[in-house]
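We were asked to recover a plausible sequence for a given structure. The inputs and outputs are reproduced exactly as logged, with field labels preserved.

PROBLEM: sequence recovery
POSITIONS: 723
GIVEN STRUCTURE:
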């Protein structure tokens, strides 16, 4: 067989990985060195050369976007569609497993997936039922607690409170939450993973089935797997008996950025220990970025310790310097970025080749406004999530209630949305009855209607709601999905509710609801990962799982906006990293908590290495964020990139200059001494009272006569020394 098309575009190390004999394999390599490419080619090799059926492969990626890219790449290599292949995120695959085996997993067939917002509501409800004070038992902390335990594979009964009353209370909440979810037939994200792990672990027949079915399991971005994901992979892995899958693991310890969410980069070490016979391959040639971009990234990441260490190089061009733009404020920043993108498009480039990356979701809004103003289509990944918008969630809640009457979260969400006379009092009564009789709210409502206790008016309102839902269900039963959706947004009263409201926001809500009908129409049931379920349920699960994975028309050429976290694994010719400021990036949290800086630096490394041709870094001298004004310092990461790679473009300068250009001079020039008097452009006159760090790290504390004491990064402060 001619296999040259699989191997042509691979270097020797990549080829070795792709063609290796079956057995555990670890490809450990830096950004842009072709890890994902190797993984995809490995799949093609296994299918075409080793004769493995595409259905005996399981490949895990980190985002749905990456999963669909991988599916396309395999399809292109294969020259045929391969729907039904097990390619997806851990969550997507776990979901698929549970759908296929809902009974064994002890779930109702129409179980629904709770996204993080739903989960929070659920926890709040549980707290109310337990009569606990939300100001003391903060719902966000509780979901954090529960998810972290689940990510470690721990159910309440596995956790020993050690007699600690706080722990005891948390466990009580966790237990009540589990009961409530089970009763409502809903699972949160962490539950998807844990439940499917338990399913494979405890159900011998299923385990045997999947262990013999999957001959190869391939995992991308392995450095960001958590305990349970690794356990999942191990359950499927070949053991001495010869059963089970060969593992093909790909990762980069320098790109581990989800430690805060329970990911364990140590899994790389565990893998080496657990599979001592594993073949390890390093890839060191970077094919993505210009030498300038790559060198900048290498210099930055070299400041982290505890690295497995690798040396990335490129044969590519030196490329343009990295542009550094100091904006006056966040509006100026957005304007500069969008103007640059416009110029870039005018040169004949595609919009989708430009990406705007930021540390915090809240930063996206201004860029969006500017893009809208300029009429440039764009897409936000992971930001303003379409499926998380209030009106969409309302509509989905109705649909979910149609699919599953026991879904308490949805019940509560829409019982009085739009307003229909079901007040708090009714809801309180329902909750109490549900609690006492251990019933879902829906059944509690039916029961309550048969008892005295409700006023005639309240009874009518409640009956009206139940009849509305039943009536809609009856009406849409045999309709295609998008007509179901259309019927529901009309008859529920949601559409009218927003039509009657004035203003742009309401208009946008109406548009969003209409867009939901489009989303339902465009939803490709056959290409979904989900088997053995009805379309509505599949679509709802898709909505929960894909929330945040884009909202513009798929396939439209548009500017890409996303957080640095969601950019992992992707690449773009032109990349902007915005808000590169102390307190934003690195985040305030990371600065405050020891040990977090390294992960933050890795995030910066991930961001820089997304760029292929041109990288632009921006920061604002003043920023309004979360409703407050800040005067942030430029990020310390800017000082960690050697000045020779940076070019200040604030005043249209084409030559390297301040602040980057002034660095060498400041570093080598006269040292500042404590007690020295200095002048600062903005803060005026002051005296040096302290200093720390060296070279581009150096910071000084200056006590300014009018603005008090401040720490400044020497390289950027432009201090004038007074005689
Ligand atoms: P990341 O760490 O960011 O996930 P990666 O290691 O997965 O990166 P890929 O995305 O697979 O890297 O590859 C980076 C770029 O380099 C892609 O555009 C890919 O097509 C290209 N590339 C990889 N290997 C080669 C090669 N041997 N010849 C030409 N181009 C290559
Ligand atoms: Mg990759």
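RECOVERED SEQUENCE:
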């Amino acid at each position: 067989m001619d296999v040259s098309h699989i191997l042509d575009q691979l270097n020797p190390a990549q080829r070795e990985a792709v063609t290796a004999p079956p057995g555990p394999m670890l490809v450990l390599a830096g950004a842009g060195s072709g890890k994902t490419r190797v993984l995809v080619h490995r799949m093609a090799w296994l299918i075409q050369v080793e004769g493995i059926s595409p259905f005996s492969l399981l490949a895990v990626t980190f985002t749905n976007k990456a999963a669909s890219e991988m599916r396309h790449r395999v399809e292109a290599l294969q020259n045929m569609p391969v729907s039904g292949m097990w390619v997806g995120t851990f969550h997507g695959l776990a979901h698929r497993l549970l759908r296929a085996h809902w009974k064994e997993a002890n779930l109702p067939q129409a179980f629904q997936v709770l996204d993080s917002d739903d989960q929070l509501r659920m926890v709040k409800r549980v707290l109310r039922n337990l009569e606990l004070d939300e100001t003391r038992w903060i719902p966000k902390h509780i979901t954090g607690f529960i998810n972290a335990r689940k990510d470690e594979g721990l159910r309440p009964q596995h956790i020993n409170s050690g007699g600690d009353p706080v722990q005891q209370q948390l466990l009580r909440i966790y237990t009540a939450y589990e009961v409530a979810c089970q009763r409502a037939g809903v699972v949160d994200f962490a539950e998807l993973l844990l439940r499917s792990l338990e399913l494979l672990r405890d159900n011998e027949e299923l385990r045997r089935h999947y262990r013999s079915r999957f001959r190869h399991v391939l995992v991308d971005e392995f450095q960001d797997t958590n305990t349970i994901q690794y356990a999942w992979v191990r359950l499927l892995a070949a053991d001495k008996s010869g059963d089970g899958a060969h593992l093909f693991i790909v990762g980069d310890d320098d790109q581990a950025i989800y430690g805060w969410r329970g990911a364990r980069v140590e899994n790389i070490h565990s893998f080496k220990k657990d599979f001592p016979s594993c073949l390890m391959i390093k890839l060191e040639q970077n094919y993505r970025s210009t030498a300038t971009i790559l060198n900048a990234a290498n210099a930055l990441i070299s400041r982290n310790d505890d690295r497995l260490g690798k040396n990335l190089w490129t044969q590519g061009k030196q490329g343009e310097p990295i542009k550094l733009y100091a904006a006056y404020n966040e509006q100026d920043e957005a304007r500069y970025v969008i103007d640059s993108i416009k110029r870039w498009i005018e040169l004949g480039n595609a919009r989708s080749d430009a990406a705007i990356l930021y540390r915090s979701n809240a930063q996206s809004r201004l860029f969006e406004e500017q893009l809208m103003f300029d009429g440039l289509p764009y897409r936000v990944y992971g930001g303003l999530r379409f499926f998380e918008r209030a009106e969409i969630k309302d509509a989905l809640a109705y649909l979910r209630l149609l699919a599953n009457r026991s879904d308490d979260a949805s019940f509560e969400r829409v019982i009085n949305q739009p307003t229909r006379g079901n007040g708090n009092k009714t809801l309180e009564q329902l909750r109490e009855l549900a609690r006492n009789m251990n019933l879902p709210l829906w059944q509690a409502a039916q029961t309550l209607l048969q008892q005295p206790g409700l006023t005639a008016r309240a009874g009518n309102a409640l009956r009206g709601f139940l009849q509305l839902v039943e009536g809609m269900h009856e009406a849409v039963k045999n309709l295609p999905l998008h007509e179901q959706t259309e019927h529901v947004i009309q008859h529920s009263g949601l559409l009218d509710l927003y039509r009657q409201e004035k203003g742009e926001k309401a208009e946008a809500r109406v548009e969003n609801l209409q867009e939901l009908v489009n989303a339902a129409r465009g939803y490709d049931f056959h290409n979904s990962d989900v088997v053995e379920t009805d379309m509505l349920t599949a679509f709802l699960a898709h909505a929960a799982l894909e929330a945040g994975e884009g909202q513009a028309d798929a396939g439209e050429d548009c500017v890409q906006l996303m957080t640095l976290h969601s950019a992992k694994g992707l690449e773009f010719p032109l990349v902007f990293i915005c808000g590169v400021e102390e307190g934003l990036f690195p985040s305030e949290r990371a600065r405050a908590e020891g040990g977090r800086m390294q992960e933050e630096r890795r995030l910066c490394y991930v961001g820089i290495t997304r760029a292929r041709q041109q990288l632009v870094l921006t920061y604002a001298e003043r920023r309004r964020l979360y409703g407050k004004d800040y005067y942030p310092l430029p990020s310390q990461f800017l000082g960690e990139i050697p000045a020779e790679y940076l070019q200040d473009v604030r005043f249209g300068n084409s030559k390297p200059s301040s602040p980057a250009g002034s660095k060498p001079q400041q570093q080598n020039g006269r040292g500042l001494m404590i007690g020295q008097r200095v002048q600062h452009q903005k803060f005026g006159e002051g005296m040096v009272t302290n200093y720390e760090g060296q070279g581009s790290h150096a910071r000084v504390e200056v006590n300014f006569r009018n603005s008090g004491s401040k720490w400044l990064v020497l390289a950027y402060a432009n201090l004038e020394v007074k005689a």
